[in-house]
Amino acid sequence: VQLVESGGGLVHPGGSLRLSCAASGFTVSAHAMSWYRQAPGRSREPLATITSDRGNTYYVDSVKGRFTISRDNSKNTVTLQMNILKPEDTAVYYCYANIEERPYWGQGTQVTVSS
């Protein structure tokens, strides 16, 4: 099982970024997939989840209405579209999957929101 994130970078406040998580060794549509982030000096926090069956989505209040999680079954990827970015969104963003009760994390991708 491997998760590889991409798409991070530096963006101005109010801007957008699209993060992608490429999965291998399993099928993303068969498992709930999540995005987390960890800011300096803070614990890792969950942001968004997409369920395995109907693809229902759930968001933490701080990103609701700004971030959108989705998956592309044909590419076996999960995406996090982030809009109206704020400086407090600066963090390392991680893709997460729980496969047969084992947690798997990607290596993370840095997102920096600054003017």
Please sum up the structure shown.
The chain is mostly beta strands and 115 residues long. It has strands spanning 2-6, 9-11, 17-24, 33-38, 45-50, 57-59, 67-72, 77-82, 91-99, 102-105, 109-113. The chain is globular.
Task: Characterise the protein shown here.
It is a single chain. With 115 residues, the chain is mostly beta strands. It is 0% helix and 53% strand. The chain contains no helices and eleven strands. It is globular, with a radius of gyration of 13 Å.
Nearest-integer average pLDDT: 97
Q: Largest sheet, if any? A: 7 strands, mixed
SSE string: EEEEEEEEEEE
The termini sit apart by 37 Å
Short descriptors:
115 residues, mainly beta, four-stranded antiparallel β-sheet, 11 strands, globular
Topology of helices and strands:
Layout: E1 2-6, E2 9-11, E3 17-24, E4 33-38, E5 45-50, E6 57-59, E7 67-72, E8 77-82, E9 91-99, E10 102-105, E11 109-113
Parallel strand pairs: 2-11
Antiparallel strand pairs: 1-3, 3-8, 4-5, 4-9, 5-6, 7-8, 9-10, 9-11
